Amino acid sequence: MPNKQLLNQVHKVTDVYSGTHVVYTSGLHGSGYVDYRNLQNHKELLLEVACAIVQKMRAEEWVEKGDTVNFVGPKTLGAMMVNLIKYELYARTGINARVWALDKVEVPEGQPKTFTWSEEKPDVQDGEFVFMDDLLNQGSTTAAVQRLVATIGGRVVGIAVIGDRSNTTPEKLGVDWVTALETFKLEVSTEEDCLLCRHQFPIALSPGHGQKFKEANPTYQGGFVEKAVSA
After folding, report:
1. pLDDT for residue 125 is more than 90
2. Is the pTM of this model over 0.90?
């Protein structure tokens, strides 16, 4: 299935928000949000998407037919994607996959995001890994995965995602390349520089971290709305 047609199928079961005011995990503010989480209820479509990402990796010459690639994916969607491709990828793309799912570790407020291996850690010494996930944001998840992989002497060389809204470069993320099926140019800013805040535009409590912002700033003059409106 061509990527454009595949993404049309993805957009039918996921949400893209625009013209709103949301707070991201990083604490930054913006006017759009991409939410692929409903794909966990559409496993066959999610498998098609994961394989399409790997096909694009091949087209961009980051991998070649017959290669064995070490994939890591954090729960929930990243872990689902790597587990789905474990036995299907070679038949569909000509790429062999070794996969490891990651669990998020609960850490104290203010501490950096942390992951651990869902099962046994890889028996790969000084290996190269590809981080697969649904969405690339500001890089905090990437950094957490990189720290974990580094504990076994490995390195994350590439990022493979459905959507990229990071507005940054692979070099700044500390990887060699990024492959995404679609890219979003969403303007983000700090709370201090947020024009939406200055104009007292209501903040959506969902999706994103609007509720957390409300708890810290209950007297925000723009007020709050329960949910952003899908584009």
Report:
1. no
2. no
